[in-house]
Each structure stands twice: as structure tokens, then as C-alpha cells.
Amino acid sequence: MTGSTAADHTGAPGSRNGEQPLWHRMSDAAGLVSATGEVEETVFGRMTQLALAHDAVNLGQGAPGDPAPEFLLAAAYDAMRAGANQYAPPLGAPVLREAVAQHRRRDWGHEVDPTEVLVTAGATEALTAAIVALAPPGTDIVVLEPYYDSYAAAAALAGARLRPVGLAFDGGSVGVDFEALAAAITDRTSIVLLNTPHNPTGLVLDEQQIVRIGELTAAAGAWLLTDEVYEHLVFDGTHVAPAALLDDPRVVTVSSAGKAFNATGWKIGWLIGSPAVLEAVRAVKQYLTFTNGAPLQPAVAAALTDHPAFLEDNARILSGRRDLLVDALREVPGVTVITPESGYFVLVDFRGLYGEARPGAGGTSPDSGAAALTADAFALNEHLTREVGVTGVPAPALCAAGSPTARAMSSVIRYSFCKGHDDVAEAARRFRTFAGTLVD
Ligand SMILES: Cc1ncc(COP(=O)(O)O)c(C=O)c1O
């Protein structure tokens, strides 16, 4: 950040009395502020640079490699031609609100009235607006860690405190640490933010787990805010919509069309909640974007209503890509692969390959010995980019900076298999070649 340091923000836009301005606190919460106080590019941008520099396959950011389906594009074009080019209604196009309600009922048994649906600029806006509306300053937002990066910035914007609860990793499996979760949810908790299916672990919470989390949340009088953007990308088992199961007006549901229809750039999302919640969230949303994507909204409506088969086909294709990558990774001696039940990502722990290292024990450059690699997932990711020719995202970047979970994940890299078939196949081939060099 030009003209100021980590401690003194004098002269920085938005700063008063040399204090850290809100935008800087948001970046800080999201782990983007360097030791010298500079706001850095997100980890996804940095990893893209890394991949480019080494001509590596970029399995960093979770952007789908397959195109959006033709029926979606045609419907948007038709809507534009039909004149849907001015502001959409503030709550969203009625046809989309109706389609979201129908699809929730059809796919997850979630009874929704269209008047309970608010269309947003992607799930990100729905989550941020809900957090600002529902989390009073000074309260806690409890979240499973690792987590999607916007949560921390939104909590900072609201003046709330993110309270991460590390997921429990046991060999290749992942689960909720209910003891830790119960301890974290207190009378200071305003929101329990639940991402299922979960990025980046692929964990799909089952009915029993959701009921337990619902009970803990209700006992604290908190909101249960769900992030279900991967709802249609479950490979093993099935998605359970918390709102369908819990029948509690304090459950607020968020999702979007981006992942389901390979159209992440469209940013068409929605929030489902009681009239009181909608009023509050809408009041925030009104002055963030007011509305967005007028011609895209009817296109998403038609896709949700008329093309359920696409959703299944897409999940099958992604499941195949998961298998392609996971099978190759499993050939690398010593690595632990967390086979995801859903979503876009696979987490891989390289500790068994490079040996133990004490986190923070110094010597984090790849040259200072293989063991040091497992203490620093950024160094490890760079090393693997050079050695294997595949770039991922260091898992600690998806955790609160310096948290116990971040430290435990110092040897874990996240790889996206939502890229196009050729990229995933090439990455799999490179991991097999790498495995061959280790076995010889
Ligand atoms: C868990 C999670 N929530 C929300 C989002 C963002 O959704 P949208 O693009 O609809 O804003 C993402 C995108 O990667 C995500 O992984």
C-alpha cells in the first residue's frame, strides 16, 4: 500500500488518525496483507502467474474448463433480443424466483415460496449482504475451516469476528469436529455459516450432522446461513438442504447458478429466507448492486426448470475428472489424497513424500531440504510446479492466517479438476510421470 506501513495508514484512502481503513481490514481478514502492509493479489492470481512462469498446468482457481451449455446462451440471447436489457426488478425476475422455488422443491424437498427468494449478484453478494444484515458488530461468525475466502472479508465489513473451526482430517478422510464446533458456538455467535457441499474438501454433510449443527445453532439463537453453490456437483451420496430438513425460519439459504451451469462469470445467485430476512438483506443489496444480469436471469430460470438432465450429466463428467486426477495422484508414493465426494477440488497432503518438518522451523526455500517443504505449502507448491509441472493452491491460503488448521495443512495443496478434460488429463499424466521417477 503506497505511502503507509502495516502500523501507520496515514495518507491511505479511507484512513483516519492513521488507523487501518475498512478496505484494508477486509483484505487483512482475507489474508491478503503482506508483512509490510501491502495488499497483495489473491492467491489465485499469484498461482496463475506461477503456473505461467513454469509452463505448468494450472489447477489453481476453480473456474470450469467446459463451456456453458448452448441452451443457456440461446436463452440469454433471446431475452436480450426480447428487450430484457434494463434494470431487473429489485428482488429479481419473477420467472427466476419461481424457478428457484420450484427447483428447491423438486431437487431437495425444500418448500419455498417465490416471495422468499431474492436474486443476487452471485452467491458472494448474497453471503456478504446477509452477513452485513444479520451479524451485529462485535459478534462471532462461526465457520468450518478451510473456507471460501469471501467469508472473512464479509465478516470484517460487518465488524464481526470470524471464528473458524477446523475440520478434522484423519488420513484421507475429513469430518466435523463436533466438540470444537459446540465450544465455538456461544451466545456471542450471530451466524453459523455452513458450506455444504464444502469447498475445498468436498465434504457433503449428511442429515444427522446437519441436525446436530442446527441444534447447536438454534440453542445459541444464531442464524444458520448456508452456502450450497456446489449442490448439483455431488458425486457420492446426495446433497441435503439444511432448510428442508430443519424447518426453522432462522435458516437462510444461499446458492447460485455458476457452478451448476458452467457459467461462473454470469454471477446469478439467490438467497432464500423469511420475509423479515429478505427485507433486511435486500436493504443491503439495494446499495451494493441494486440488480444485475437482467437477461441472464430468465435464462437461468429456463435452465433450472427445463434442463435437470444437464445437471446430472455435468456432475458425471466432473466425477470422471475427479477419478482421473485422484487415480494418478494415488500413484505418487507417500501422498495422502482426500478423495472429494463433491465439488471442484482435491486436497493432497505431501507430508508422507517429503518427510516431517516442524512448521516454522526455518529454511522454507525448496533448496534447504525436502523436509522444509512440508512446513511451507507455498514453497511446496512452487517446488511441485517445477518438478511436476502442475500448479495448485496452497491449502493454508484457504484458512485463517496462522490458525492451527493452517499449520496442520502446511503440506497440503488443493488441485482443481473442474478444468477442461485435456488439462486434467495432462496433469494426471505429469503426476504419473513424477511418480515413476520416484519409484525408479
Ligand atoms: C464455497 C463457495 N461459495 C461461494 C462461491 C461464489 O459463488 P458465486 O460465483 O456465485 O458468487 C464460491 C466460488 O468459488 C465458492 O467456492
Main sheet: strand order? 2-10-9-8-7-3-4
| Low-pLDDT segments | 357-367
Computed structural class? alpha/beta
Helicity range of the residues?
Answer: 40-55%
Shape: globular
Instruction: Provide mean pLDDT, rounded.
Output: 93
Number of helices: 17
Radius of gyration: 22 Å
Overview of the molecule:
- The protein is α/β, with parallel strands linked by helices and 440 residues long.
- The chain has 17 helices and 15 strands.
- The chain has a 7-stranded mixed beta sheet with strand order 2-10-9-8-7-3-4, sandwiched between helices.
- Helix 9 links the parallel strand 8 and strand 9.
- Helix 3 crosses helix 11 and helix 4 packs parallel to helix 11.
- The radius of gyration is 22 Å and the shape is globular.
- The N and C termini lie far apart (49 Å).
- 51% of the residues are buried.
- Bound molecules: pyridoxal-5'-phosphate (PLP).
- Pyridoxal-5'-phosphate binds next to helix 5.
Short description:
41% of the residues lie in helices and 15% in strands. By secondary structure, it is an alpha/beta fold. β3 (140-145), α6 (150-158) and β4 form a beta-alpha-beta unit.
Element layout with pairings:
Blueprint: H1 22-29, H2 43-53, E1 57-58, H3 70-81, H4 94-108, E2 117-121, H5 122-134, E3 140-145, H6 150-158, E4 161-166, E5 168-170, E6 173-175, H7 178-184, E7 189-195, H8 207-219, E8 223-227, H9 242-246, E9 251-256, E10 268-272, H10 275-285, H11 296-306, H12 308-329, E11 336-338, E12 345-349, H13 351-354, H14 370-373, H15 377-387, E13 390-391, E14 393-394, H16 404-408, E15 412-416, H17 421-439
Parallel strand pairs: 1-13, 3-4, 3-7, 7-8, 8-9
Antiparallel strand pairs: 2-10, 5-6, 9-10, 11-12, 12-15, 14-15
Helix pairs in contact: 1-6, 3-11, 4-11, 5-6, 5-10, 12-17
Pyridoxal-5'-phosphate (PLP) binds at residues 62, 122-124, 148, 195, 199, 227, 229, 256, 258, 264, 267, 269.
